[in-house]
Amino acid sequence: MQNESETFVTRRDLLSLVGTVAGGAAMYQAMTSLGFASESGYKGPIKLEGDTRGTSVLVLGAGLAGMTAALELRKAGYKVEVLEFNSRPGGRNWTLRGGDSFTELGGATQTCEFEQGLYLNPGPWRIPYHHRALLDYCKRLGVALEPFIQLNHNALLHGSDAFGGKPQRIRDIKTDFQGHVSELLAKATQQGKLDEMVSAEDKAILLQALRSWGVLDKNYAYSASLDSADFRGYARDPGGGLGAAPVAGEPVGLSDILTSRLWRYLQNFALYQFQTTMFQPVGGMDMIGKAFAREVGDLIRYDAKVTRIQQDHGGVTVSYLNAKTPAAPQLAKADWCICTIPLSILSQIPVDVGPRMKAAIDAVPYASSVKIGLQFKRRFWEEDEAIYGGISYTDLPIRQISYPSSGFNRSGRGVLLGAYVYEGANSFEFTSMNPADRVARAVDFGSSIHPQYKTEFENGIAVAWHRVPFTLGCAGNWSDKAREEHYDNLCRIDGRIALAGEHASYIPAWQEGAILSSLDAITRLHERVVKS
Amino acid sequence: MQNESETFVTRRDLLSLVGTVAGGAAMYQAMTSLGFASESGYKGPIKLEGDTRGTSVLVLGAGLAGMTAALELRKAGYKVEVLEFNSRPGGRNWTLRGGDSFTELGGATQTCEFEQGLYLNPGPWRIPYHHRALLDYCKRLGVALEPFIQLNHNALLHGSDAFGGKPQRIRDIKTDFQGHVSELLAKATQQGKLDEMVSAEDKAILLQALRSWGVLDKNYAYSASLDSADFRGYARDPGGGLGAAPVAGEPVGLSDILTSRLWRYLQNFALYQFQTTMFQPVGGMDMIGKAFAREVGDLIRYDAKVTRIQQDHGGVTVSYLNAKTPAAPQLAKADWCICTIPLSILSQIPVDVGPRMKAAIDAVPYASSVKIGLQFKRRFWEEDEAIYGGISYTDLPIRQISYPSSGFNRSGRGVLLGAYVYEGANSFEFTSMNPADRVARAVDFGSSIHPQYKTEFENGIAVAWHRVPFTLGCAGNWSDKAREEHYDNLCRIDGRIALAGEHASYIPAWQEGAILSSLDAITRLHERVVKS
């Protein structure tokens, strides 16, 4: 799952959130020259060289952080064992398909009824092009990728009180807002109102640029024409043969766009983390977890619920129960421990670490998030509305509808993401409902955007992350203050224990953060081992 | 192939071109209300009802227009025969793979040396979501589609004289231009300079919107910060573990962007015809032609070069030669004729039509276009530069480099589009070279954008459309004046002959135009038959 809070918070909140994630103003640094590519924290496959002298490492958690550690540590010569709470690998790297069932906190069990081949990724569902570590593991482990469509110009923006509740095409709002802004600035420029801000030489080029960028006419006006239609789309598309000339539509007025507040969704698609080209694994996100498990599955003990983590000078001892049939606790021992258990869980387990790391473990609340997958009899969004992939945004509690980025243009059933709520009141509200009600509400709200919901809906499944037993939340939700005070203490090795996971990264809620934090932790652990 | 002229003409030229394609100002029509979706000329599968009484139709050309006609006419009860110049179906719907060879006008023969699974689409290569007819035929004929990536924020914009010849990331130029424009307009707004243009109520929201859209700080300035980095990318990406805080880069100054003129490429991606979500057939564009041929292949006589088209009250008689071993001409007869031969060829064939249609046939020059496919030892654009699909634009004669939209993140060889030139001096220049020189020049130019070219290049193939024997050009290049004078005369049925193809549409150079024109022509032909 990823941070989608920009979909329902104000712009101010988003900026504040970004600042939070990044660790505050202290981190800001203006660089005087631009590199050709931005620098990734991933420099290619890790190399752990040196004699590990039979050292053993116990890894807690078989999510991506844990399995990355297991894979690389074994390759480096360590003896590795992994304890995993679930009966499957992957953790939040998880896909629900027809026949899968899952029980949430509170006891409600859902069984997925999707048709074969259809699925929901309740957790992470897309991969940015700059997540170099994750992409490299996909390549090395043979995980086939396909594009994930984030921005679809033909998807919808919907405000309950905007345009009489009638959804607008993204291409219309985007083109028209840009056109109006360009017109205003061009006119101000022409009227000499920017003379203090723009040089005479630049002014002439600025006017050209605004005309190009805003699709302005020769008088620098943005207006209804086949020129603007060539970007915003037509009232009637150009055709073939006789009587096939195109007809332009009327742009939405600036005042209407402003008061509709639909402009606040436009930059979602431009965020570095959501820019083209994004990916998803062919067949479901858990193809990645499964690929890791092909490598390290033999090291994993499933259904192992960790109840205590102890350490002394000689090593680490972890107590665990069988999560399905709890009996007497069992013990696992090793020289070192990489613990990837989410802080929401770890903070409830007795752990022998110093007060600094313990305070850090306790400092991070976990974000609330809800995802609801809905199966329909047919892909009406494609057939009726020419919407292929992408996301429609709304101010309704479902916040967004995302259309599948696979199976394009096929006949038959389809599953879309009927709600994706991240933090905020709506997320808590959905979490408080029973699963059937969540699905019913998603269908109800969605039908005001797509009336076809009413006749085409078949079944659904709803995951509320605060009720997911193995994480009790979606992802570590660092505040600026908490990060400043605790982040380094969380990441520093305490005795023989090192923590890893998305919570131990500057890319919270992303799989890349989990992998990079794991690579960093095992690198530092390995340095201690070979130097000791 | 499609109209990519916006990549190397001025914005003014583009606007003028758009006007041309659309048929001029007379077509403009402001609509007072916005439809939920724009109206497509395609209303679902064609229904040709009524008794065809054994009527026969001769179709000339087995491109998409011809095969659409053959498929639908046979289904409606007509006796259909198709004559095709090439030894394969599809016409410009064409894919070159390893082992394919092709001889251009002038006699040069190229044999494609691509590794198995790699290909070049010399003609059309992408499908917009609003090309409803083409998409419906893909669905009906079982052609699997995958996304075609047009906009990749991490691809490059390159000006020989801009930034010392150093390519810039699209995300940087896009974010920074938008940021600077927003800052200028916000400041003008704050200073009361827009008071005549914007109401007081709108002004407050406009400032909020500009702050969101332009990623402005609380003082409405666009500047180096982790906020702007969250859109333009970072100097150092956020990472995991210790020492992983992100570092922001320095935005490009407005003056530098303006004088670089890289802004002129920004709207390419926003054009209705190039907007997300676009598609390509899995495995090559000719999967569509092959799918049609599975339906109507039994009706097609290949290697048939039409030399004369005659008609009288009784029917149509077409003379043709075997294109490979020309001997005595053979005759094909039918009651009616659907002729999809490109006008560049048809204007050189004696045709019994009235002076109006004949004048129309002669009125349309064919566009020049060159495409060059280059195979490299590895997908360095992905591995080294994180560029997955999309297009880099340059003012060099190659104009654009397009990275493949399939095989993402795989090891091994890859083929990219090393040049795509549409009209203009560069197109004629490339056309005048022999194929080997075209490829060598593309490698030479491209290496100033991707230095890896020098060591990774293996082989290439170059198609110059003015030298392609079956079209003598890329597509009908209607002028505004020609369309006004001749378009309807081209489309009207002359006796027993109706024309179809992209040239008989308002969507020139696109496959949708070919199909829609064909559906329109056979609809009108059928009306005459059942009413006669």
Task: Walk me through this protein's architecture.
The structure is a homodimer of 532-residue chains. Helices cover 32% and strands 19% of the residues of chain A. Chain A has 532 residues and is α/β, with parallel strands linked by helices. A 5-stranded parallel sheet of chain A has the order 13-2-1-17-23, with helices on one face. In chain A, strands 9-8-19-20 form a 4-stranded mixed sheet. The longest helix of chain A is centred in the middle third of the chain and has 21 residues, at 170-190. Mean pLDDT of chain A is 92; it is low at 1-37. Chains A and B meet through helix 1, helix 3, strand 7, strand 9 and helix 4 of A and helix 1, helix 3, strand 7, helix 4 and helix 5 of B.
Please tell me the overall pLDDT of chain A.
92
User: Low-confidence stretches of chain A at least 5 residues in length (pLDDT < 50)?
Assistant: 1-37
For this structure, the quaternary state is: homodimer
Shape of chain A: globular
Give the CATH class of the largest domain in chain A.
Answer: Alpha Beta
Distance between the termini of chain A: 39 Å
Sheet with most strands of chain A: 5 strands, parallel
- Please state roughly what percent of the residues of chain A sit in beta strands, choosing from under 5%, 5-15%, 15-25%, 25-35%, 35-45% or over 45%: 15-25%
CATH topology of the largest domain in chain A: Polyamine Oxidase, Chain A, domain 2
Count of separate DSSP helical elements of chain A: 16
| CATH architecture type of the largest domain in chain A | Alpha-Beta Complex
How many domain modules of chain A? 3
Radius of gyration of chain A, Cα only, in angstroms? 26 Å
